[in-house]
Amino acid sequence: MQPQTTETSVSVKVSKNEALTRRLKQFFKYKLAVIGLIVILVQIFLAIFANSVTSYSPTVQDLTHVNLKPGSPGHWLGTDNYGRDMWSRLVFGARLSLMVGFSSVIIGTVIGTLLGLLAGFYKFLDTIIMRISDLMFAFPGILLAMLIIAILGTSLLNVVIAISIWSIPSCARIVRGSVLSLKKQEYITAMRALGASHFRIIFQHILPNGTAPIIVFATMHMGTAILSTSALSFLGLGAEPSTPEWGAMISAGQQYMWQAPHLVIIPGIAIMLVVFAFNVVGDALRDMLDPNMKSR
Amino acid sequence: MVFFMGIVLILGMVLSACSSSSSEKSSGTSEGSASGAPQELTYAMTSKIVGLSPIMTNDSVSTAAINQIYETLFTKDPKTLEIKPLLAASYDTPDDKTWVIHLKKNIKFTDGTPFDAEAVKYTFDKLRDPKTGAPRASLLAPVASVTVKDKYTVVIKTKEPYGAMLAALAHENAAIVSPTADKKQDLMKKPVGTGPFMLKEWVAGDHLTLVRNPSYWQGKAKLKQVTFKVVPDVNTAISMLQTGQVDFIDGIPSSQWDRVNRLKGIKTMKKAGTAVAYLGFNVRREPMKNLAFRQAVAYAIDRKAYVKQLEGLGIQSNSIIGPKVFGYDKSAEAGGYSYNPKKAKQMLKENGWEGKTIEMLVANTENYMKMGQIVQDQLQKVGLKVKMDTMEWGTFLDVSRKGNFDITFLSWSNSTADGSELLYPNLHSDNIGSSNVTGYNNAKFNKLVEESRASTDQNYRKQKLDEANKLAIKDAPWVIMDHGVVTAAYKDSIKGLTIDPTGLWSLYKVYKE
Amino acid sequence: MVTMIIKRLIQLIFLLIGITFIVFMAMHIAPGDPASIIGGPTATQSDILAIHHRLGLDKPIIIQYLDYLNGILHGDLGFSFQTNRSVAQEIWTRLPNTIDLAIASMIVAIIIGVPAGIISALKQNSWLDFSSTTLSLAGISIPNFWLGALLILVFAVNLQWLPVGGLDTPFWTFKGFKEILLPAITLGTGSAAMIARMSRSSMLEIIRADFVRTARAKGVKEHMVIWVHCLRNALIPVVTVIGLNFGGLLGGTIITEQVFAINGVGRLMVESIASRDFPMVQGGVLLIAFIFVIVNLVVDIVYALIDPRISYQ
């Protein structure tokens, strides 16, 4: 741990601009990460301008034009078994998966970080919080989500809640780990000796220095959240069927896989691309931000 | 890499398009046309068998197996649905509250216990006993007593005249069990009946193997062994049929019908069934209380387009009592409200319901989600807002019973194929809070249904049912989505399979060529 | 070491009691009544009350919980609401399938993951490294129900090399091997990816470690350096990942069992949650949690054994 602290304190002296360009250069060294970043940017673009890039509503049916193949006039990605435009559904699905991913990651990370900070800083809370997180770890993720949805009912919002809860313990562990090591450092011990308030120490000194692993966790978790949403939709526990959620689209499309394979291929590839993108970007971020990983 | 996977997938799809020839070869050669084909059959079902006691179960999968092991006093002819004696020899009704049933002689349960009046009394008393907690105890609810007159005669007395008695006695949940076996073991696990097959092995949740009953009273079955295998994913089940791991499946979803029909070496069967699927209004709430609103919704739904979505696996009709159910009369079709979106829009506008939000409750199984999505879209096109709530089946049952919805979808399989058994549980006010989810309560209708139940004169009953049916169609607590079609797909080497309109089948006469 | 194990076992007991409480309460709070599911839409109100009584659901909830705990202390997990069979027996018939599937997937994951990670570490920044990294990332990114359907389509339906589904024989026999191959690949890809990443990074770290340099400097042959010095040390963190992943695999079996028609504990859990079969869900979750904790305990012990630097006070 020691050498890394000196490294961070040195880099503080370097002008911010220079540090940024250095990091950017480092980032572009990871070719995959650049591809991933482009995919994410495209997704964000589609999510924001969903209304402008599509000419149909994603939910309006046209029962006279069902299962059109990709390349059909007016529907370049074809239509589904209710005659809904696949391109519109794909684009609005991009918006949904970003929303689901972001909101569950934000909820999970905020709560997880708070618990992690408390557990790491206060010894008496540590045991309680960590035992509870052990308890949650012992449940397989999907099973935990299924139980939560059984209580709350099936809806996309409840999927978000279930996935957030499921991510809390891992996040709390990571944060706790970095708090434990930061706590021992001289300047923190010094501040405590000087009588600085705990609140100030935690939020002004420990948290900012421990953000790197949180950001990495959050990015990687975006992928997991999107995948889990689709898995829950596959089990019929996710979005209501007319919403263009990618997992629900695959699950519904599977019934027509033999007549209209595009119903399954298109959302499947979309999920893979996006999850892949978040994973490679997360990987690259970890290499850059997490000093422990630098040598790898 | 991602692109590579995509390519593999697309390749897979292309391969699948031209693969039917290979599957034809395999299914052709493996079974062969020799008469020495092994007399064994594998059936795939999408959920597990819960138990094998007719008294303690009430789900279609368990019933499919129970139907091979046990027998009822009466049975429905699979084609005409006419009720005829099975374990019974004959019956007479000295007065309209007394049924004297004469039993067939020299029949034995597979544990050696003789089938007699005691066994019938034992079974019915157990089914009726509140302590048993039988799910279909209501079948014999009107019964006051069951007495043994002599070894082969049972007398059933009812509290009031019970018109659907024979239909109830022909119901699989009223099948006769061996009293000696029931006293010493759990029939859910170790069933003993008089039927053509008996249990050999059961790996819970995976498969159930039956072998033929060597001393079956109508002569041995041709199949030596039958396996019921659980395959939860329909896609997988059909793939297994295609590759020959499975011989027979039923209840094929409409989305798969086209695929199944294109499989080589596989035969399909479909015929009109007794099940009915409907949209139900919660008539206790505004605006569903108003006939005009219900009419407007009925006008807004293009049921022809919906039935077309079902790939022919549904029959379009306005009548609540379906064509295959006792009490149906063709004239009922004229009474409904056919598709007319303009009129719907106008009616909604006139009454100030335009833009109103309707809560639609939908169970998360494929068929209901299909109805839900189509109706949601069509109602939105005439100016309503529809909020769809999907739930798991278990939650759905609870919520719909409590009446927490505006509109919902349900179906009724009607295993007795009798109109009274459709109208009474679903629309009579006695059953509000349980099976009457819409809360429909109409005194005139109630009276007609009671009359249809209380008589044993079948012509009179039919007339009352028809009147009640027409009244309810006009009043529209339900909009009929479709009447069901029963389906099966099986290897072409399998002969002698018939399915009755309630979806049940017997493997007694089935054989492999 | 021994005290560590005892301490962990005591914790395990509290953990399991905590789990019974959470699952018990969760199932009772959840909307949906087991009796109305057993009765189906045809059951009348009195039918349902009778079923309630038969299942003991008419007692106060605290009494029900205490009864349940009391049963567990006597080694009785209760009876399934749906099938009336003992929960232990129901789980016991399905457990071998799930364990087979989890182990087979783990083997697939190790066979793919470890070599891929090592090769890409040894040839760092080559095209081999690049493609194996991409491959392993793609492995985590594929929804596994999608992959399963695809594998069935290609290898079972079109090529007919392997059966579509079902698992009737143990996986070490030829027939069982054919049956489990597709499900194991479906489930194993995600873990393979994680193992590959872990092997790669820990291998990279070791290659640069002092003792390896010393070995090289002493003139030890290159392949000896790699196989003897690096590999053994590099695999230590990999073992942890394998342990953690095993728990994840148990969860992953839920979807794989569904797609491949395997009669396992995961599928039993899906059915039991849907049918609100309380004793079944409680028993199943308890068992899965138990296995998870034990596997991790074993991993920690193995970890301590292969790495003398770690000690537990």
From TrEMBL, chain A:
Keyword DNA-binding found: no
Subcellular location field: Cell membrane
PROSITE patterns assigned to the protein according to its UniProt record, in alphabetical order: ABC_TM1
GO biological process: transmembrane transport
InterPro entries: BP-dependent_transpt_permease (IPR050366), MetI-like (IPR000515), MetI-like_sf (IPR035906), OppC_N (IPR025966)
Keywords: Cell membrane, Membrane, Transmembrane, Transmembrane helix, Transport
UniProt KW Aminoacyl-tRNA synthetase keyword: no
CDD domains registered for this protein in UniProt: TM_PBP2
One Pfam entry name: OppC_N
Limits of the ABC transmembrane type-1 domain: 94-282
Membrane topology: Multi-pass membrane protein
Highest rank taxon of the organism: Bacteria
Any GO CC annotation of this UniProt entry: plasma membrane
Transmembrane portions of the chain: 32-50, 96-125, 137-167, 215-239, 259-281
Protein family: Belongs to the binding-protein-dependent transport system permease family.
UniProt-recorded name of the protein: Peptide ABC transporter substrate-binding protein
Organism: Pullulanibacillus camelliae
Lineage: Bacteria, Bacillati, Bacillota, Bacilli, Bacillales
Gene name tied to this protein: oppC
TrEMBL record, chain B:
Keywords: Signal, Transport
PROSITE patterns associated with the record: SBP_BACTERIAL_5 (PS01040)
One GO CC annotation: ATP-binding cassette (ABC) transporter complex
Membrane-topology annotation of the record: Lipid-anchor
An example molecular function term from Gene Ontology annotations: peptide transmembrane transporter activity
Top-level taxon in the UniProt lineage: Bacteria
Segment forming the signal sequence: 1-19
Annotated ranges, domain Solute-binding protein family: 82-433
Subcellular location per the Swiss-Prot or TrEMBL entry: Cell membrane
Biological process according to GO: peptide transport
UniProt record similarity statement: Belongs to the bacterial solute-binding protein 5 family.
Name of this protein: Glutathione ABC transporter substrate-binding protein
Organism lineage: Bacteria, Bacillati, Bacillota, Bacilli, Bacillales
Automatic annotation (TrEMBL), chain C:
GO function terms (MF aspect): dipeptide transmembrane transporter activity; nickel cation transmembrane transporter activity
Its membrane topology: Multi-pass membrane protein
Primary location group: membrane
Record's subcellular location: Cell membrane
CDD domains found in the cross-reference section: TM_PBP2
Matches recorded under InterPro entries: BPD_transp_1_N, MetI-like, MetI-like_sf, Opp2B
Keyword Transmembrane: yes
GO CC, alphabetical: plasma membrane
Superkingdom of source: Bacteria
ABC transmembrane type-1 domain: residues covered: 95-303
Annotated transmembrane regions: 12-30, 101-122, 134-160, 180-198, 234-255, 285-306
SUPFAM superfamilies assigned: MetI-like
Quaternary assembly: The complex is composed of two ATP-binding proteins (NikD and NikE), two transmembrane proteins (NikB and NikC) and a solute-binding protein (NikA).
NCBIfam families given in the database record: Opp2B
Family that this chain belongs to: Belongs to the binding-protein-dependent transport system permease family. OppBC subfamily.
Name of the protein this chain belongs to: Nickel import system permease protein NikB
Originating species: Pullulanibacillus camelliae
Source organism phylogeny: Bacteria, Bacillati, Bacillota, Bacilli, Bacillales
